[in-house]
Amino acid sequence: VLQISKDDVTALQCKVVCLIQNGNFKEALGVISTHTKVLTSDIIAFEKAYCEYRLNRIENALKTIQSASQQTDKLKELYGQVLYRLERYDDCLAAYRDLIRNSQDEYEEERKTNLSAVVAAQSTWEKVMPEDLGLREATYELCYNSACALIGQGKLNEAMKKLQKAEELCRQSLSEDSDVTEEDIEAELAIIHGQMAYIMQLQGRTEDALQLYNQIIKLKPTDVGLLAVIANNIITINKDQNVFDSKKKVKLTNAEGVEHKLSKKQLQAIEFNKALLAMYTNQADQCRKLSASLQSQSPEHLLPVLIQAAQLCREKQHAKAVGLLQDFADQHPANAAEIKLTMAQLKIAQGSVTKACMILRSIEELQHKPGMVSALVTMYSHEEDIDSAIEVFTQAIQWYQQFQARTNYGCCVFQPKSPVHLSLIREAANFKLKHGRKKEAISDLEELWKQNPKDVHTLAQLISAYSLVDSEKAKVLSKHLPSSDAMSLKVDVDALENSHGATYVRKKAGKLTGDNQQKEQGQGDVKKKKKKKKGKLPKNYDPKVTPDPERWLPMRERSYYRGRKKGKKKDQVGKGTQGSTTAGSSELDASRTASSPPTSPRPGSAAAVSATSNVIPPRHQKPAGAPATKKKQQQKKKKGAKGGW
Questions:
Q1: Do residues 389 and 431 make contact, with C-beta atoms less than 8 angstroms apart?
Q2: Backbone torsion region of residue 140, taken as left when φ is above 0, otherwise alpha when ψ lies between -120 and 50, otherwise beta
Q3: How crowded is residue 159: how many other Cβ atoms within 10 Å of its Cβ?
Q4: What is d(CA 395, CA 373) in angstroms, rounded to the nearest whole number?
Q5: Using CA atoms, how far apart are residues 146 and 160, in angstroms rounded to an integer?
Q6: Cα–Cα distance for residue pair 50/422, rounded to 1 Å
Q7: CA 129, CA 47: separation in Å to the nearest integer?
């Protein structure tokens, strides 16, 4: 037809639709652009916008839809999808509500699913409290989107239950189709399992989450967005450990088309983790390049500058890191508090505690916070700067007084102080008492007692402080203390001793009658003596022989120990030429040995000559040649040798 009539509108429309059905979106756009005179926006607006949408030219698709003279239902459907991709969730929500209200066809369930997806995105990325749409969660898609909305609110346990329900519905709906295999079902369930693993990770169950993440990766799903998110989450679990695995997983985040599947915040989180991974793997240049790119994309974001500062600290350039953070704090006062906290941490790491305190005190919005006051007082106490610590207390107390004066402006009645204010005054008083500032502590305690005259603890502290300064005043105040009867605690001692947590439980006395009672009374003061067990003696023990007093010492520490005789046989070996005689050759002659007189016995061998009836056991005998009075022990030992035998 087009060969006969090149500008036939119906034929051109048919050709464009065929190309779209075949997925040839570029060719379809080419046909539309070459026949703009015939294919006007009124005729072909939907097809053109759809091709641009599929080619990820989202801004162009929006312009095409808005330029159309007539907004058909098809264009409204596509308009909702385009707004969702542009993350304009409020406009997208309004578009889908209008579609559901003004259309009745077989696609109503899909529109409700898209509407719930918009609400889930608002809850997750914009932290908006989702409204109840009244949708019946009859499909697994609706259950899944509802679970995502709950995750955005932090209701993790409820979200897990919704995901389990979505898994059941998915299995039921897919198992009804005979053509669907178990592998197809697992592939469809991959996104649900991925969200379950994410909840486990948020709950601290990292091992379970990691196992489920790896199971999904083994399935090799075709959704590159799902794979990128799972790989990123595994990298966050690994942190600075298992870096080799993280370097493999990061390749999944670089797959083609990932940028069109994920939201801007997801892509930003992946880039942050890439920069951190580069820092952990000592790729300093790559880390600086990635963090600089992130900072140019989001100049007000904290993480890029924090990553750069961390990299400088790894390179031992702490001063440069502090300067970088100071510049960022000056340029972005809204984020100065968090940056200054990091600067203070770096100063503490360098040992400059006083400078860290100065930085912390420059954060005006945190000066009066109890946590900040506690930190500053602790740090000043560590530096023994008590005056500065008391000044921190004073400034915080004054701030709360001014705050209360502003909130109670125009009120003439007595107003009690806030619990935080009173707590600060009490801590200041305790601190001053501890460091000998009694007069200053007394004024704080009087202020506390004025607020609550029935507080016995404060009164006792005040009397204790006055006793060191003004004893007469302490006596006057002591009259306000309640009597001992009023202060006595009504405690059931028996119930307390028999309680579950008692460390001492008194035994209940049994009934004593007759002889038993008299016996108990007569022998009440007598203590039972424990029988001592007789020690075991060796089998060859001889009571007539005096035991060796050094038998309990190791052999090396005994006074008669002479060390081992080394080289007995070496002296008997001839060391000259073959056939020569040595000084010890006469000893080897058997004839001479038989007639030679017996040599004197060696120390320790005298017992062998005596009769067998007088044999002294080895444990009790003492060498004959050892002097009895010699007690010098050998102290020199080989290095690393253990003492004793």
A1: yes
A2: alpha
A3: 23
A4: 10
A5: 11
A6: 66
A7: 36
Cα–Cα distance for residue pair 108/114, rounded to 1 Å? 10
Q: How confident is the model at residue 267 (pLDDT cuts 50, 70, 90)?
A: very high
Residue 460: what residue type? A
Name the DSSP letter for residue 633.
P
**What is the SS3 string spanning 490-551?**
CCCHHHHHCCCCCCCCCCCCCCCCHHHHHHHHHCCCCCCCCCCCCCCCCCCCCCCCCCCCCC
Query: How far apart, in whole angstroms, are the C-alpha atoms of residue 33 and residue 39?
Result: 9
CA distance 354 to 346: 12
By C-alpha distance, which of 66, 50, 58, 121 is closest to 90?
121
Q: Average the pLDDT over 374-394 and give the result.
A: 86
Confidence of residue 561 (pLDDT cuts 50, 70, 90): confident
Residue (of 66, 36, 34, 61) closest to 50 by Cα position: 61
Amino acid identity at 589: D
- Rg of the chain over Cα atoms, rounded to whole angstroms, equals 46
Q: Which amino acid is at 539?
A: K
The neighbour count for residue 231, using CB atoms within 10 Å, is: 23
pLDDT tens-place string over residues 86-134: 999 999 999 999 998 888 888 888 889 999 999 999 999 888 887 777 7
- Mean pLDDT along residues 243-257: 90
Winning range, highest mean pLDDT, from 205-214, 511-520, 553-562, 579-588? 205-214
Spatial CB neighbours of 487, under 8 Å, sequence gap ≥ 6: 456
Instruction: Give this prediction's pTM.
Output: 0.65
* Contact between 124 and 89 (Cβ < 8 Å): no
Q: How far apart are CA 445 and CA 473, in angstroms?
A: 14
In the chain, the amino acid numbered 277 is L
pLDDT in tens, 427-478: 888 888 787 787 777 777 777 777 777 777 778 877 887 887 777 877 877 7
List the beta strands (DSSP E) in 354-476: none
Residue 452 sits at the vertex; the CA angle it makes with 450 and 455, to the nearest 5 degrees, is 115
DSSP-derived letter for residue 406 is H
